[in-house]
Amino acid sequence: LPVVAIVGRPNVGKSALVNRILGRREAVVEDTPGVTRDRVTYKAEWADRRFSLVDTGGWEPDARGIDRSVAAQAEVAIDLADVVLFVVDAMVGATSTDEHVVKLLRKSGKPVFLVANKIDDARQEPEAAALWNLGLGEPHPVSAIHGRGVADLLDALLKTLPDVSAVAKAEIGGPRRVAILGRPNVGKSSLLNKAAGEERVVVNDLAGTTRDPVDEIVELGGKLWRLVDTAGIRRRVHMAQGADFYASLRTSAALEKAEVAVVVLDVSETISEQDVRIIDLVLESGRALVLAFNKWDRLNDDDLENADRRRYLEREIEQDLAHVAWAPRVNISAKTGRHLDKLVPALETAIENWDRRIPTGKFNAFLAELVAEHPHPLRGGKQPRILFGTQASTRPPTFVLFTTGFLDPGYRRFIQRRLRELYEFDGTPIVINMRVRE
Ligand code: GDP
């Protein structure tokens, strides 16, 4: 999906605009600055076009940090969005922070929509017109809270959104898109440098690809791969506060562009909550997943302590990563280059399975056998029945079951497990949805 990012100072109404675009009533508008929101990416739809909406404003700093925080938002938006919505509080007018962001946005050459918010009625429109002098073109007067002007804004926005299907078509047979993710210092940039190394292909007009300066095309295992958002790996956010937020913002935005994620972990350190959170972002995005356990050179001697660590690592993986036991694991050393060649087959497996389709006849035969062997437990004397199932889509494989009642979560997990046992689904999440006919 094309990505639209919303950028702006604290309190200009970014969250209100997000809610308005998503068409939700229950507002997540916060008047208190400094609130952290976990979700940053939303699926939006307007006039039958779908796009991802990235709210860059989830972390709002105190007054001293505003410039850096808004600049960090702009950086993510510029690198990873197709179109930027830059929101200004028209009743306040452009501040020096706004002007700073305008400079960044103009230099980037990305399409930008200047949103003049808080224009609650027509009499206030001159305030919006005053924003012409920011040099970002026509200000779009809106009231995010009341909805005024938002439809016009979205109509205009859709005209500049890249045509997804055209992009998708151009990329068939083109390089697969890989995001390298992981918390700081696990070895992402070492891996990138080793992988890109001398083999880096400098491309400007590789046939059938859209060029994006934050991506790198590398040749691995005889194939070309597009590593997305390598700028986010090379450049680091140096911020006292909010760095975590901007890192996960970047992760979410990079996932939007990727087909498969390599999550890098450091075997010399305990698996942390942050590692698990990054993996969960991948699951939420529905992308294929490969786990790269890095820095094996540190554990590979006969040192007793290392033997302990190796044993402990297995336990940690069982405990903390049980929910992604289906993800291919590669043990590598970005430093020595050891086993880096194992990464490519793992990526290929993950992507292939992410694309896999089970024919409807086969899937229903599978369901019939499974139910015969293991009927759903009785609930209040009744038993929900599965009438029919089909795989609605791939990327990731998504199944729909038509049932006569809700299936227990445990039973759905059982179906997932059996699917994985019988078919090749290593490296991909599986989604099972239900349509209940009462
Ligand atoms: P990033 O923040 O994830 O990009 O991590 P870096 O690639 O900058 O690596 C962080 C530190 O770990 C650096 O000092 C690297 O030299 C070191 N490092 C990275 N990969 C390995 C590895 O495979 N083995 C060892 N021993 N050190 C590594």
General description of the model:
The chain has 438 residues and is α/β, with parallel strands linked by helices. It is built from 14 helices and 15 strands. β11, α11 and β12 form a beta-alpha-beta unit. It is globular, with a radius of gyration of 24 Å. It binds guanosine-5'-diphosphate. The site of guanosine-5'-diphosphate has 16 residues, from α7.
Task: Provide the descriptors you would attach to this structure in a database record.
438 residues; alpha/beta; Rossmann fold; 3 domains; six-stranded mixed β-sheet; globular; binds guanosine-5'-diphosphate
Order of strands across the biggest sheet?
2-3-1-4-5-6
Strand residue content: 15-25%
Overall outline:
globular
Largest sheet: 6 strands, mixed
The CATH level-2 architecture of the largest domain is identified as 3-Layer(aba) Sandwich
Unreliable runs:
29-36, 199-211
Average pLDDT confidence is 86
Cα Rg? 24 Å
Protein name: GTPase Der
InterPro entries: AAA+_ATPase, G_ENGA, GTP-bd, GTPase_Der, KH_dom-like, KH_dom-like_a/b, P-loop_NTPase, Small_GTP-bd
Family: Belongs to the TRAFAC class TrmE-Era-EngA-EngB-Septin-like GTPase superfamily. EngA (Der) GTPase family.
Binding site for GTP 2: 182-189, 229-233, 294-297
List the helices and strands and how they pair.
Blueprint: E1 3-8, H1 14-22, E2 41-46, E3 49-55, H2 66-80, E4 83-89, H3 96-108, E5 112-117, H4 125-129, E6 140-141, H5 150-160, H6 164-171, E7 176-181, H7 188-196, E8 216-220, E9 223-228, H8 231-234, H9 243-257, E10 260-266, H10 273-285, E11 288-294, H11 304-320, E12 329-331, H12 343-354, H13 360-373, E13 386-393, E14 398-403, H14 409-422, E15 431-436
Parallel strand pairs: 1-3, 1-4, 4-5, 5-6, 7-9, 7-10, 10-11, 11-12, 14-15
Antiparallel strand pairs: 2-3, 8-9, 13-14
Guanosine-5'-diphosphate (GDP) is lined by residues 182, 184-190, 233, 294-295, 297-298, 333-335.
